[in-house]
Amino acid sequence: MKVNDAHLLAQAFSLAGEAMLVTDEAGHVVAINNEFSRSTGWSPQTIAAQSLQLLWSSDHGAQVDTIMAAVAANGRWQGEVLCRHGNGVTQFREATVTGLANGFIVVMPDPKRRHVGRIDSLTGLPDRSVFMERLKTTCAQVERKHMAAAVLFLDLDNFKHVNDTLGHDAGDRLLKEAARRLKSCVRESDTVCRLGGDEFTIILAGLNQVEEAEVVAQHILGKLAHPFDIGGSISPMSASIGIAALPNDGISPDELLRRADAAMYQAKRSGRATYSFYSQEMMARAIERAHLERELRHAHLAGEIELLFQPIVNLTTRRVTGSHAMLQWNSPRGGLLNAGQFLPVAEECGLIRPLGEWLMTRMVQTLVAWRQAGLGEMKICVGLSRRQLGDLTLFEHLLEGMKANNLSPALVEFEVCADALGDDKLMVRSVLATLSAFGVGLIIDDFGHGHVALQTLQHPCLRAVKIHATQVQKNKTIAGALIRLSHALNIPVVAEWVDNNALLNGLAEAGCDYAEGNMLAPPLDGHAFAALLKSPNAEIAA
Predict the structure, then answer these.
(1) Are residues 132 and 62 in the same domain?
(2) Are 233 and 163 in contact (CB under 8 A)?
(3) How confident is the prediction for the chain on average, in pLDDT?
(4) pLDDT score of 535
(5) How far is C-alpha 157 from the chain's CA centre?
């Protein structure tokens, strides 16, 4: 090689945009380029003659020999290493090691310019494949060094509602900001990945004790609690976090991910905006939940779920003036299950939309049958979850059926828990606007148990509020005040769960307008409900 050629090669090596180093046959560093020095903090003087064993962290000691053997056999090795920077901080870096005549050359691309197939294009975070590789490396470290580590599985609460009400662009902005906040909560040596959708995973390696993961989870919840400004709309956000610890909860990447996922679902069941550690009991519940999910999917197709209607009775005339629709599942394994026992599973596994559409279709069919039976304008109220409230396709599905059968939308009223109409003012405004646009009424359930804004109580789409009958039994003063407040705003009051005469009489004395409960009439299928009301003068005897 000519002297000028050697000089040009040396310049090209020095100025290359990728971090590069050259070693001798024993793996000792001979030279590094400017980008390597910039990105790792090593100077040529401090790293000269050092071994790759040092550079790639003591955790990769055994791996260096494996890499060199692979290069000797194949001429080249490519993968991910845990690179130790000059300041002692470690960072996962992709590396390509190529054999030379008398040594090796190592090239490490800038993590910010890595191959797009391994980086989530929206958030810039590593993707699932990178997460699983790094978790495998972390598991190996834990086994060798008897250290602690943790996997956090994070799911943003009510993200679908943001997408449905503000649009996918707003949802994308929220995901990017969430990713930025997550990265700010961990060390550079930790790994934050976007698993998909609104799910993120974090690997916390090199922990002194597992309790450190709890501190990180608390920090994350605090960071996410600050309102998100997404396109001019201020939206609060929270997350449910599951934590699986290494080595106590396993050392298999797939097993740890499943267990962190199970812990995350436990956090959601605990009320969201919280974290939960994995436990053996939790896995047993997760297995039972998986069985329930499979059975529920079969039940939806096999017709095991039925729609029942509980009469709503006017306490003055004792006549039935409406109905409360409720789902019931006749499970071959679990017996009769009410909606509260299986709808949360339907929400988690994605069945809530097809179940909701089936429910709307059956309601329309029932209203048509009741009209043909001469029941007139008999109303149906049905409870919706917070997630269903944000699903415009559900409203559209209902209205399409109502219009096709010449039914008034006013015959349907959606029942929503007071808690769901609490702090998220944006969601409440969106729900009220949707109900008004479609002409569907709103009933607030559990009135008195959650914060409901005065503007909501004065909204024209509000048809009634519901209270639990036992509120009268527990505190007549508070129950009476709730009823008087409602009447002052011209809002009728419905009491539910009436199961004895003492409650019924107490409600009547307090001025309650309507009631429902098994003592008055049990839930009935559509045909039995119509048979009960065949006579226009039919009354419910107490």
Answers:
(1) no
(2) no
(3) 86
(4) 64
(5) 5
Please compute the mean of the pLDDT values over residues 21-32 and round it to a whole number: 89
Separate counts of helices (H) and strands (E) for the chain = 21, 21
**Residue 233: strand pairing partners:** 230
Residue 338: which of 324, 357, 354, 321 has the closest Cα? Answer: 324
Distance, in Å, from the CA atom of 516 to the CA atom of 204, rounded to the nearest integer, reads 53
Residue closest to 264 by CA, chosen among 241, 248, 285, 295: 241
Examine the domain organization and report whether 511 and 412 are in the same domain. Answer: yes
Asked if 53 and 64 count as a contact pair (C-beta separation under 8 A), the reply is yes
Rounded to whole angstroms, how far apart are CA atoms 425 and 236?
10
Amino acid at 454: L
Same domain, 320 and 374: yes
Beta partners for 95? 79
Nearest to 365 by CA among 410, 404, 314: 404
pTM score, whole prediction: 0.59
Q: Peptide bond before 247: cis, by omega within 30 degrees of 0?
A: yes
Q: Is position 540 within any domain?
A: no
Could you identify the residue written with the tokens 């993961």? 213
**Full residue range of the structural domain in which residue 88 is found:** 3-113
Answer whether 233's CB lies under 8 Å from 166's CB. Answer: yes
pLDDT confidence tier of residue 72, bands split at 50, 70 and 90: confident
Question: 184 and 43: one domain?
Answer: no
Q: What is the mean pLDDT of residues 423-428?
A: 65
Quick one: pLDDT band at residue 516, thresholds 50, 70, 90?
A: very high
Sort strands 441-445 and 412-417 into parallel, antiparallel or unpaired: parallel
97 and 153 in a single domain? The answer is no
Average pLDDT rounded to a whole number, residues 363-375: 94
The radius of gyration of the chain from alpha carbons, rounded to an integer in Å, stands at 31
Tell me which H or E stretch contains 428: helix 425-438
Q: 């590789």: which residue's tokens?
A: 133
Which of 238, 255, 278 is at the close of a domain?
Answer: 278
* pLDDT value of position 116: 47
Number of domains in the chain: 3
Environment class of 393 (CB within 10 Å of its CB; exposed 0-12, middle 13-18, buried 19+): exposed
Q: Could you tell me if 407 and 515 lie in one domain?
A: yes
Burial profile 211-224: b = 16 or more Cβ within 10 angstroms, e = fewer: eebeebbeebbebb
Does position 479 have pLDDT exceeding 70, yes or no?
yes
Q: Is 460 helix (H, G, I), strand (E, B) or coil?
A: coil
In sign, the C-alpha dihedral spanning 476, 479, 481, 483 is: negative
Is there a contact between 314 and 321 (Cβ–Cβ < 8 Å)? yes
